[in-house]
Design brief:
The chain is mainly α. It has helices at residues 3-13, 23-40, 49-60, 72-85, 90-102, 117-128, 132-145, 163-168, 173-179, 191-215. Helix 2 (23-40) runs antiparallel to helix 3, helix 3 runs parallel beside helix 5 and helix 6 runs parallel beside helix 10 (191-215). The N and C termini lie far apart (60 Å).
Length: 218
């Protein structure tokens, strides 16, 4: 399988992305997801087809995301045509497409989609990228790009119950930690991800605690 073709496709699709969902994010997700899979499966090999599926879905996952893609259906069709050309069979193509179309946080607010095992590692790695130091940096980058306030005590965190509410409610970056990011550790699928999520969440909670202490200076 020619993963290099997948990498070049991803680079081209995300070349103008500046909200933390760029190619380098996809590359980190690919590395992290495959590392966690290998850690949880002691007899797995780096060059296995399962690892190739994981890396491919990881690289591609944001190329169709509504946050950064103007025409998701068009890109899905391009990916559907590309995957067999680089060596994936019909079932593997289905796994990859199903994963990238159903793994996002917003897609799972109202209905929890059960992903194939490969997709669970990609979803976990993507969510880990929302935590820790990288997660903090990405949260403020995304919030700034979309004109969100850093913090406003008059705007209270909401309990997210639908995709439309998540996309359209009045949001601050600090509220985003309470509305989404602090909940991700409990949503992890795999053993390796659960442990790392707890570590990154603790780091992030310390950051928000320090932020609020500095904000509330007398």
């Amino acid at each position: 399988m020619d993963i290099n073709a997948i990498i070049e496709f991803t680079k081209n699709q995300l070349k103008d992305e500046k909200t933390g969902h760029d190619f380098y994010h996809g590359e980190r997700v690919a590395k992290l997801a495959s590392q966690m899979y290998l850690a949880d499966h002691e007899h797995a090999h780096e060059d296995s087809r399962e690892v190739a599926i994981i890396k491919t879905a990881a690289y591609l996952h944001d190329t169709i995301d509504e946050k950064v893609c103007a025409d998701s259906e068009k890109v899905v069709k391009e990916i559907d045509e590309l995957l067999p050309q680089v060596g994936f069979n019909d079932l593997e193509v289905w796994d990859i497409l199903y994963t990238i179309q159903h793994m996002s946080f917003s897609a799972n607010i109202e209905h929890h989609y059960h992903l194939p095992l490969s997709g669970q590692y990609v979803q976990d790695a993507d969510r880990l990228e929302s935590l820790g130091a990288i997660g903090i940096a990405r949260a403020f980058t995304y919030g700034g790009k979309h004109g969100n306030k850093i913090h406003d005590p008059e705007i209270k965190p909401e309990r997210l119950v639908s995709h439309d509410q998540y996309r359209n409610h009045e949001e601050t970056t600090i509220n985003h930690f309470y509305e989404k990011l602090f909940s991700l550790a409990d949503l992890m699928n795999t053993p390796a991800a659960k442990k790392e999520a707890e570590r990154r969440t603790a780091y992030m909670r310390n950051f928000v605690r320090e932020f609020m202490q500095e904000w509330n200076v007398d």
